[in-house]
Amino acid sequence: MLRILNTANFKCIGCHFRLTQCARTLTEKKGFSEKLMDGPQFEDFLKNDFKDYKGKLKLEINESGRLRLPPWLKTEIPMGKSYSKIKAQLRQLRLSTVCEEARCPNIGECWGGGSHGTATATIMLMGDTCTRGCRFCSVKTARIPPPLDVDEPVNTAIAITDWGLDYIVLTSVDRDDLKDGGANHIASTVKEIKKRSNILVECLVPDFRGDENCVAIIVNSNLDVFAHNIETVERLTPFVRDIRARYRQSLAVLQAAKKFNPDLITKSSIMLGLGETDQEVEQTMRDLRDVGVDAITLGQYMQPTKRHLKVIEYVTPQKFKAWESIGNQLGFLYTASGPLVRSSYKAGEYFLTNILKRRKKQQIDNNIIS
Question: What residues does [4Fe-4S] cluster 1 bind to (predicted)?
Fold first, then answer.
């Protein structure tokens, strides 16, 4: 399941439910390493060489107007049977998707499966209304959203089990109106999924106002990957995210997850193009590594509506490639970096699946030896 919510952006909100389904073809017989190699890479989205693009890519200080969309961000939206099937089943089970609520431009590629046969959807748990108002995100907000759907954990588990998925990402809106921030609801969903299948589960969660007890509830739910997005650099955080979402608080949440389970894979995401400097981006990456974050994604911020923050800069594919190299040098297990990369990235899910399967096999082998 993958994506920056936009918004085509990462998601500030919390829980995406990512459905990753490999087409029933000969690919099913391949090993995870082969699947990773065959999985979609950023180059798959590019049709031409854009190194010679001469358009304006960055606004100067106090400059008005908006930048033109560069060619590497103009993608076709394929629709197909998989897209229609997923949409119909989601409606039937009353599940919300961040793909729709956040107006993600990758929805056709993900839901339709594209040329790689990997159908993906991102479902928000706890409804479609967030208690926070981040300036990059188009998900609707309210001080007191509707009550939780008590059937959602079971309905979600039924849906993803029925689709025969290998790896899912669950995400959610922020629910500051709830004492536990919705942690028990998310954990219940994970448990319902694990009860029915061996699907690998990633949870992209809110910061729970920094409450470590809520973090522990998620960690102890038997999930496989704990994700929380830092979103942007420290200087820009007060202007980009809701005032209740603090940079150091997000780092503390990621650190707490590692404290409760040092073997748990943790993950975070950064949006680029909001006016950050290279030094600030690198410092943010270092801050994430310092608290033990294993995987990171970097993608282009895209303005969802005229009411949201403007794009200050369109970062080139070459620059994103450089950030990938820096991520590898800093020691991240996995760095996905590209204009169209979102917090859940299809190739990244293949990679993390490979790591998780290998780790579980090693644990089994160790138990046999001992």
Answer: 99, 104, 110, 344
